[in-house]
Write a structure and sequence with these properties.
Blueprint (H helix, E strand, L loop, with lengths): L1 H4 L4 H16 L8 H13 L4 H6 L2 H8 L4 H13 L1 H4 L4 H14 L3 H8 L11 E6 L19 E9 L2 E8 L3 E6 L10 E2 L5 E9 L2 E8 L4 E5 L4 E2 L11 E9 L2 E8 L4 E5 L4 E2 L12 E9 L2 E8 L4 E6 L4 E2 L4 E2 L5 E9 L2 E8 L3 E6 L4 E2 L4 E2 L5 E9 L2 E8 L3 E6 L4 E2 L4 E2 L4 E6 L5 E5 L2 E7 L1
Antiparallel strand pairs: 1-31, 2-3, 3-4, 4-5, 6-7, 7-8, 8-9, 10-11, 11-12, 12-13, 14-15, 15-16, 16-17, 16-18, 19-20, 20-21, 21-22, 21-23, 24-25, 25-26, 26-27, 26-28, 29-30, 30-31
Helix pairs in contact: 2-5, 5-6, 8-9
Length: 450
């Protein structure tokens, strides 16, 4: 027994001691010997390769075996379990299943992630979302080749298509923009570099048939990138006087444009073909940060919707006439940090996320709220996206509480249980085929409906 315990953790010693005491109490001392204990412990350690054991077993029991794991499969399973061990002790088996699948994907084993997602949990429905892939920049690389990613917080996500491949484009405080192949999870080309002090806002579009990304930075610039070549298009755009937090793209009278907002409260519209600003700012120095910009169509007119955090003020702008449509909407009673536009039953809507943890949906035609506030988050909601999943319009929201929620916008109810992540969620997007893309901590993950 001593040779088994040599080099093992205190947790393993305590686990084994509890088992031996249990055997003695059960009157098994006559059959107890060193070889028997070794065989029992070896069998228990071997269970680490069983996804059902990882999901459903008591975390103290699993952690008691992790440091004694031998062989590549056991050591790998132990590394996956340790990645979010600080959360497993307080989580139920359903949440643990989702976290373990995410961490397996972060270590690059998509097959294990799928097997974990398929594990049944007593009293819980089958998992609705699986993890297609995730980056692994924050996990222990000593045992497995991970997908390296950003080295600081991911604060923006957009989706697009490059050479027929669906991609995600992510922005980070590490001063880089990265492009990810949504099918393989691999990074496309080298990081896009040029901003300093961090890249905050990101959107995608098409200019002269070429896919582009438009980014806003803490260096007060807007940059345009050719996603096919990975090169900047021209020089940075310099009209802003503070951090550019909000970026969106649209098409107005056949012309691709970008709409950008900064922390001075100023919103500019840019012609992406000529790379010149169009007229005067839509709004200028409202003494409140522009937290989000979204674009869409209201009553047949292309519009931009801008969100300032002071009192949750939402303004709707006609991009053709450059006039504000109606009075501002005061969406929440406190700060508001995230917004997206969508369509529900043919009606254009805005979805806003607040510092009080609530989410609200607004009909942009009637300018009235739809239903009651959506209340499932327990901290600030700063990441909001809209899309279509299984033919139904949804909103995806991410929060400082380290969770993601998917909402059915037709019913105003959650479309399934919360999705838990090991770090704060500051960016979300939804692909054209209904897959949420989540930026959590330094990492990126793509989920898929099961």
């Amino acid at each position: 027994m001593l040779r088994l315990l040599e080099g093992s953790s205190v947790t393993l010693r305590n686990w084994l001691r509890s088992r031996v005491v249990g055997w003695l109490d059960a009157g098994m001392s006559g059959d107890l010997n060193v070889d028997g204990v070794e065989a029992v412990l070896a069998g228990a350690v071997g269970r680490l390769a069983d996804p059902g054991f990882l999901v459903n077993a008591d975390p103290e029991e699993v952690l008691g075996l992790v440091d004694a794991a031998s062989g590549p499969a056991g050591r790998f399973a132990g590394a996956v379990y340790r990645a979010s061990a600080h959360l497993h002790r307080d989580a139920g088996a359903g949440v643990r299943r989702q976290l373990l699948a995410l961490d397996a994907a972060r270590y690059g084993d998509r097959g294990l992630a799928a097997r974990i997602t398929a594990v049944p949990v007593e009293g819980e429905p089958a998992a609705q979302w699986g993890v297609e892939w995730a980056t692994g920049g924050m996990v222990d690389r000593s045992l497995w080749q991970t997908l390296a990613g950003h080295t600081s917080s991911v604060v923006g996500v957009a989706t697009g298509v490059v050479e027929g491949r669906p991609v995600a484009v992510t922005s980070s405080r590490d001063e880089t923009v990265r492009v990810w192949d949504l099918a393989t999870g691999r990074q496309v080309g080298q990081p896009l570099t040029g901003h300093i002090f961090g890249v905050i806002g990101v959107a995608t579009g098409v200019v002269d048939g070429c896919p582009v990304a438009v980014t806003g930075g803490a260096d007060e610039t807007v940059r345009v990138w050719d996603l096919t070549t990975g090169q900047p298009v021209g020089e940075p755009l310099h009209e802003h006087t503070n951090w550019v937090r909000a970026v969106a793209t649209a098409v107005v009278d056949g012309c691709p444009v970008a709409v950008t907002g900064d922390y001075d409260g100023t919103v500019w519209v840019w012609d992406l073909t000529t790379r010149e600003q169009i007229g005067e700012p839509l709004q200028e120095r409202f003494r409140s940060d522009v937290e989000a910009v979204a674009t869409g169509v209201v009553d047949g007119r292309p519009v931009a919707v801008t969100l300032t955090d002071g009192g949750g003020m939402v303004r709707v702008w006609d991009l053709a006439t450059r006039e504000q449509i109606g009075e501002p909407l005061r969406t929440h009673t406190g700060p508001v940090y995230g917004m997206a536009m969508g369509v529900v039953d043919g009606r254009p809507v805005a979805v806003t996320g607040s510092g009080d943890g609530t989410v609200r949906v607004w009909d942009l035609t009637t300018r009235q709220p739809i239903g009651e506030p959506l209340t499932c988050h327990t901290d600030s909601v700063g990441a909001v996206a809209t899309g279509v999943v299984d033919g139904r319009p949804v909103a995806v929201t991410g929060s400082v509480d380290k969770t993601v929620r998917v909402w059915d916008l037709t019913t105003g109810r959650p479309a399934g249980p919360k999705l838990v992540f090991p770090a704060e969620v500051h960016a979300v997007a939804v692909t054209s085929d209904g897959r949420p893309v989540v930026g959590f901590g330094h990492e990126v993950a793509v989920l898929a409906r099961r």
